[in-house]
Amino acid sequence: SKSKHNGVDPGQMFKEYGIDSTRLLMLGSVAPTSQRNWDDATFPGVLNWQHKLWLTVQEFRKARSEAETLQIPADIAAAEASLRDSRNYYLRGITMSYQVTHQFNRVISKMQGLTGDIRRFGAEYKAHCVEFERALAMQVVALAPIAPHFSAELWAGLATSAGLKTTSEFNWSRPAHLQTWPCLDSDYKRELTCSVNMAVKDTLKISQDQLEQMTESSATKLALSSSEVRLYTDQSPVLQTRLKIYPGLCAVVVHTKIH
After folding, report:
1. pLDDT at position 4, please?
2. pLDDT per residue over 193-232, tens digit each?
3. 3-class secondary structure, 258
4. What pTM value is reported for the model?
5. Residues 6+ apart with CB under 8 A from 27
6. Which residues, in sequence order, are CB contacts of 80 under 8 Å at separation 6+?
7. Region of 174 on the Ramachandran plot (φ > 0 left; ψ -120 to 50 alpha; else beta)
8. Which one is the CATH code of 10-178: 3.30.750.24, 1.10.730.10, 3.90.1010.10, 3.30.530.20?
9. What family does this chain come from, according to its entry (predicted)?
C-alpha cells in the first residue's frame, strides 16, 4: 500500500540482487494476471537456478577446452537423442508461454527444467555432444527477453568457448538478443489432438515438418483416418472442422450434428 508505505523498495532490491534477478523473482512467482504478494520464499529457487546455469556455461567452456583429453562416451548417440528431445520439448513450452499464454512464470519453470535435464550429463558429454551445445545456447537465447544482462554474460562465455559445433545455427559474433529465435527440429514428433464436439477422441503423432505444411483439409483427412474419431463421425455428418496450431499445441476440432 502506498499510503501505509509497506511496499518493497525497488532500489534496495536492485542493490541486493541486480535488475535481472529482481525481474526474474517478480515474474517467477505468479502469472501476470494474478494478485501478487511479495514473498521472500521465491528467492532461493530462482537464484539457485541462475547459479546452476552460470556453472553449466563455465563447465561447458572447461570441457570444450579439454576435449582432446576427454574420451568420447560409448553411449553418445543415446545422449544426443535425449538432449535433442529435451531441447525440443522445453523450447515448445517456452515459446508457447512467451507468444500465446504470456505466462512468464511458466517460461522460467520450463527453463529450470531444461537446466536440470542438461546438467545430468558430465564433462565428456559437454565436450563432444552437439545437442548439449544446441540446448544450452537455445536456453541462453530464450532467456534474453526477460534477463538481457544475465543472458549477455552467459552468451559471452559460450561464444568464446573452444570447438563450437553450431556455427550454422547461431551467429556467435552477434549478441544473444539479436539471434534468430530457435526453431523446433523438423523431425520432432508433435501431438495432433483430435476432438469431436469439443471432446478429445484421439492423439496422433506427426513431425514438426508435417505440421508446418498442414492445411485444414489435410488435418481433417488425417483426423478422420482415426478409428477412434470415426466411431463418432460415421454416425453423424461432419458440419465443420477447424485446425488450431500454436507453438505448444496443435489440434483439429470436428463438429458433427448432434442427435
Report:
1. 67
2. 899 888 888 998 999 998 888 888 888 888 888 999 888 8
3. coil
4. 0.85
5. 104, 105, 107, 108, 146
6. 129, 130, 131
7. beta
8. 1.10.730.10
9. Belongs to the class-I aminoacyl-tRNA synthetase family.
